[in-house]
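Class, study these two lines:
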Amino acid sequence: MKKQLQLTHRLVWVLLLVTTFISCDDLAHQPVNTDSSPPKPIASAEVENLPGGARITYKLPAESKGLLYIKAVYEIRPGISREVKASYYTNTLVVDGFGETGEYPVKLIAVGRNNLESDPLSIAVSPLTPPVKSIFETLTVKEDWGGISLTVNNETEASIAIEVITLDSLGDWKPVETFYTKMKDVKFAVRGYEPVKRKFGLYIRDRWDNKSDTITNEYTPLLEEFLDKSKFREMTLPTDYNAPHSGGTLRMLKIWDGLLSESDFVTVPGHGLPQWFTFDLGVTAQLSRLVLFKRLSANFLYNSGAVKKWELWGSANPNPDGSWDDSWILLKECQSIKPSGLPPGQNTNEDLEYAAAGEEFEFSSELPPVRYIRWKTLENWGNVTHVNITEIDVFGQELK
């Protein structure tokens, strides 16, 4: 009898729990607002036109009970619709994505918690010149070492893609490079071409697939060679500092060993800046450019002893006493750039991609040929007392 009572009590509790869960489930799937009326429409709005968009300030309905959000519905191109939503806590929203100037209709709609929509308020916006157009007007292209280089000014720091195309062997246009960036001052280069006249085209695209016009022209790439790094040698001149960190394993030769993963030249901390070291290219060459590769791990990228500002000096026959006399000529004042501008320890995808591609530093074609390089570090990203360099590539024309 006692066992039967216990069993009965358990069954009652199970039934109560099941009933409770079913009731909760029913409530969870019910609308938050059971009102069957749509929200009142927006009565008025003001427009501030922006490059490629507009800021709309509107007056919320006087009776806003049950209001969830406001949305703007519009087309950026015929047949290409967009929606922008704003919480009922604010009275402004920005419509964007327009690739051309002109007048565009926009519908403002209030949406309730019951998912019902108000009657739309129809307005018109007239975007100013969109970034994809204004940036294109700043585009300059010139012949460069092994290809072409380009510069643009992206004053609004818009997300853009710079597309480079060229003619293939059949005379058809084909894409050869795409540069994605938000940087304000942009400089990129397309390399790997013989010094033969070639036709290139360039245009700019934004994240809504709006495109600028295409600029085309013929360019003759300047001749350059990849200098053989197996010929590079360490040097130690008086006043140089190249003492390697980690028990002497992180030596200078690490910067030309062809390894990009944790194989760095790191000097012993404590010496301070500026500090400099010297190496022999193994050949005398008219230099065209140097490419710097950074360690990509989060603790060292744009951090610690990674070089930020430095000078490159060259010599064909340096004074053996290590003095900074006229046997040395300044080749380049260099500064590493971090696209995002964020402080050390905070890196964006663009920072990672920019560093992984290698950072280029071009030499003037007016400089004399050199064989010896002296690297003088003035500042590093972590404001520490040592220097960290992962790898370099050097290009130019070897004198035979």
In short: The two ends are 109 Å apart (CA to CA). Confidence is low (pLDDT under 50) at residues 1-8, 14-33. The chain is about 10% helix and 40% strand.
